[in-house]
């Protein structure tokens, strides 16, 4: 339990991750307080998505450790395959991916209740009730019996968010969740995430959408070359970056957007 | 000499009986073969090297040798090894089941491999235990994806089953050959036998196309 708002929710120390000879994360140190909405921006290949995947326990690491809500969560072993992950702690974290990753053979409702029923042993009726409430809240009340293939990209991504929320996560990770969407569908997904932000859900978001970053972030990290180059409030990192590399990136991104 | 199909009218019952034998044999071998194929497919994707090796040898052996030789080998050699006689029906069931098992295991293996990494990532992110991952996410999708190819395998087996006539089993092909020899009307008889095979196989091949489209649409995410 986090007793005080100042105690870190996440504490990352010396995190290293390599794919073969390619060093993707080169000693990341990071603390995140409860209620923070951390947006990670940066060039492709800079390690943003890898950082989130490591946070979710999807990747082994080469060095460093992560604690979550004061508990040891991930710790590097003698070799990457020996990475120690506390699965109980991992269940406190939810993640939504770029490519929806809904289970195509299950309908929307079944997608939502699978984990609560199988992981937490929740009764099907109780899980269904919660799922229907979430779907209604996200404007998907009519889609409970639809299959993922019958939904638009934006609807699929909202279902994916609802599915993650069914497990009452203490931290949500969003990995470029609007990158695969048609431009006109981006807004509906971002609105759902903004809705969660208003409820003080702690989140880490990797995005290329600077408008969204500016609107949702309580803090922005600029990540490049496997290190955190700049870390600060959105007005600073997006508006008046101190580091030259951040400035270059922001100039280029905003130039493209204009 | 003019073609005369009327000669076949006298042999309706024999042809029907032969067809029923063919269908019975095919169905038994489909059920047993798919069961073997499913587990062999799992074994071939297993982390255990011995399981992978043994299952791989079985599949390559039965895929790489003619079914007719497998059939002869089981009919003539297996009784010598077992020290007991096998009926031609039993021999045919064993041979075609093992053949079907090898073919369908490849279908299952391919469909298991077609499940993308992101599905496994989603399972991890939802904290699904390994058993639930396998039984609720991976296998249902793999089986769904396998269905069209499995149906094609079944149609192939239905046609391949004609080979059992070579070990004297009274299937449709065997009955057809007998009638053909007795009436000296091979063209008419074999044409009708071919038509019977076609009438059963054709709707099934159409069904495969239809089902394939449905499944692909459903699994497209």
Explain this structure to me?
The complex is a heterodimer of chains A (258) and B (221). Chain A is of the alpha/beta class and 258 residues long. Chain A has a single domain (10-257), classed as P-loop containing nucleotide triphosphate hydrolases (Rossmann fold, 3-Layer(aba) Sandwich), CATH 3.40.50.300. Chain A is 36% helix and 25% strand. Chain A has helices spanning 48-55, 87-90, 108-119, 124-137, 153-165, 183-198, 210-216, 234-239, 244-257; strands at residues 10-19, 22-32, 37-41, 63-68, 71-75, 84-85, 93-96, 171-175, 203-206, 219-224, 227-232. In chain A, the strands form 2 sheets. Chain A has a 6-stranded mixed sheet, with helices on both faces. In chain A, helix 3 (108-119) crosses helix 4, helix 3 (108-119) packs parallel to helix 5 (153-165) and helix 5 (153-165) runs parallel beside helix 6 (183-198). The longest helix of chain A has 16 residues, at 183-198. Chain A is globular, with a radius of gyration of 18 Å. Chain A starts with 9 loop residues before the first strand and ends with a helix. The model of chain A has no long low-confidence stretch (mean pLDDT 91). Chain B has 221 residues and is mainly alpha-helical. Chain B has a single domain (5-219), classed as MetI-like (MetI-like fold, Orthogonal Bundle). Helix content of chain B is 80%, strand content 0%. Chain B has 8 helices and no strands. Chain B has helices spanning 12-44, 49-64, 67-82, 88-113, 117-125, 130-160, 172-183, 186-219. The radius of gyration of chain B is 21 Å and the shape is flat. Chain B starts with 11 loop residues before the first helix and ends with a helix. Chains A and B meet through strand 7, helix 3 and helix 5 of A and helix 5, helix 6 and helix 8 of B.
């Amino acid at each position: 339990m986090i007793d005080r708002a100042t105690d870190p929710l996440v504490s990352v120390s010396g995190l290293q991750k390599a794919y073969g000879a390619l060093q993707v994360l080169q000693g990341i140190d990071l603390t995140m307080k409860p209620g923070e909405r951390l947006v990670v921006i940066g060039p492709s290949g800079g390690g943003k998505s890898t950082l989130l995947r490591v946070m979710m326990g999807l990747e082994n690491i080469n060095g460093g450790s992560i604690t979550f809500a004061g508990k040891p969560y991930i710790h590097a072993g003698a070799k990457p395959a020996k990475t120690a992950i506390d699965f109980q702690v991992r269940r406190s974290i939810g993640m939504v991916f770029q490519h929806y990753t809904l289970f195509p053979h299950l309908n929307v409702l079944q997608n939502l209740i699978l984990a609560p029923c199988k992981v937490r042993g929740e009764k099907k009726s109780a899980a269904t009730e919660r799922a229907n409430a979430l779907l209604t809240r996200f404007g998907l009340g009519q889609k409970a019996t639809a299959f993922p293939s019958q939904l638009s990209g934006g609807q699929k991504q909202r279902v994916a968010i609802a599915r993650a929320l069914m497990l009452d996560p203490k931290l949500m990770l969003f990995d470029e969740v609007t990158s695969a969407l048609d431009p006109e569908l981006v807004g509906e997904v971002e609105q759902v995430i903004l809705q969660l932000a208003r409820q003080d859900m702690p989140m880490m978001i990797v995005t290329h959408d600077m408008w969204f970053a500016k609107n949702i972030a309580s803090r922005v990290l600029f990540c490049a070359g496997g290190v955190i180059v700049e870390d600060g409030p959105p007005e600073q990192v997006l508006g008046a970056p101190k580091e030259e590399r951040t400035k270059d990136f922001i100039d280029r991104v905003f130039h493209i957007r204009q | 000499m003019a073609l005369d199909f009327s000669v076949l009218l006298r042999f309706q019952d024999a042809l029907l009986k032969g067809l029923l034998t063919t269908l019975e044999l095919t169905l038994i071998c489909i059920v047993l073969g798919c069961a073997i194929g499913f587990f062999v497919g799992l074994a071939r994707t297993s982390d255990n090297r011995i399981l992978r090796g043994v299952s791989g040898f079985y599949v390559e052996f039965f895929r790489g040798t003619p079914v007719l030789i497998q059939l002869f080998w089981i009919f003539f050699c297996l009784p010598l090894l077992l020290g007991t006689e096998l009926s031609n029906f039993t021999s045919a069931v064993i041979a075609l089941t093992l053949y079907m098992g090898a073919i369908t295991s490849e279908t299952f293996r391919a469909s298991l491999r077609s499940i993308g990494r992101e599905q496994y990532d989603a399972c991890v992110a939802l904290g699904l235990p390994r058993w639930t991952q396998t039984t609720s996410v991976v296998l249902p999708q793999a089986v769904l994806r396998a269905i069209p190819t499995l149906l094609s395998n079944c149609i192939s087996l239905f046609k391949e089953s004609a080979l059992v006539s070579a070990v004297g089993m009274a299937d449709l092909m065997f009955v057809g050959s007998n009638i053909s020899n007795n009436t000296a009307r091979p063209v008419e008889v074999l044409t009708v036998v071919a038509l019977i095979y076609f009438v059963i196989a054709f709707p099934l091949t159409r069904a495969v196309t239809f089902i394939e489209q449905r499944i692909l649409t459903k699994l497209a995410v």
